[in-house]
Amino acid sequence: xxxxxxxxxxxxxxxxxxxxxxxxxxxxxxxxxxxxxxxxxxxxxxxxxxxxxxxxxxxxxxxxxxxxxxxxxxxxxxxxxxxxxxxxxxxxxxxxxxxxxxxxxxxxxxxxxxxxxxxxxxxxxxxxxxxxxxxxxxxxxxxxxxxxxxxxxxxxxxxxxxxxxxxxxxxxxxxxxxxxxxxxxxxxxxxxxxxxxxxxxxxxxxxxxxxxxxxxxxxxxxxxxxxxxxxxxxxxxxxxxxxxxxxxxxxxxxxxxxxxxxxx
Length: 264
Hints:
It is built from twelve helices and nine strands. The strands form two sheets. A six-stranded mixed β-sheet has the order 1-2-3-4-6-9, with helices on both faces. It has a three-stranded mixed β-sheet with strand order 5-7-8. It is globular, with a radius of gyration of 19 Å. The N and C termini lie far apart (47 Å).
């Protein structure tokens, strides 16, 4: 096996407005190496930079989404306190600037451990196969989650529900993930990618500037509170109302046809 194949990779390609981000190390249950983490950050950065990309779908090759970090290759970096995401690139875990402004849909199946949960919690919606097995098992390895699980699991599920799994490392299933708000839909095995692409295409057909504005306002509410988000309603709406897409939205309404948004 070549060094590149052993380290794994994360690929990306764009079809129309949807950027597919593909985790590719199935022989190792898609365990993330340092190279794969860099690749992932580069893929998210491409989503942000590509003016034609409106939304991304994250998926994995093989039967499993990811077993998490490949600890033998990542542990030395962690011990030295090194950042696993290179500076200047978009952080896929949304823990530091620059933050992405475009939506991400994640399709998960099989095993989705540790970093995999943190990646999907940092996304905007998650479609899970009914056969998914989830676990935030860092405490079983003598470390703690640092990709956002300690924050977002509490936000989604409440303190007790988050601690139930953060402090035990126990596995939970797709229906539990749905109940706790970690995933948005559960579908039959091997149908999760199809459903994720359907939702991504629906997002891509909306006005891109409006989608990004809605995301930004919701994020502002979550980080700075509802008053900060409310204060942005009028100025942002005024700016959006002056765009070509707003004019197209009104025209399509009057003409009873589907809108054709250009992102301008």
